[in-house]
Amino acid sequence: MPAYEYTTAAISHGLMGRKSDEVDREELQTVLNAHGADGWELDKLILDSSFHGEKDGHLLIFKRAAA
Length: 67
Prior knowledge:
The protein is of the alpha+beta class and 67 residues long. The protein starts with a strand and ends with a strand. The longest helix is centred in the middle third of the chain and has 13 residues.
């Protein structure tokens, strides 16, 4: 069974952070492309997350095979 490593990224809520159920598609695409270029694959997208000490938003969890 392959071993994986994980990383996370966050994007803010909607346009200007106003609506928690909105996803800024342009920001999402930018984050996906940046991580994909480094070999990361999106594993999960968790909408409307609260982050300790950070602005709330949507959590992206990426994985790739461990070296």
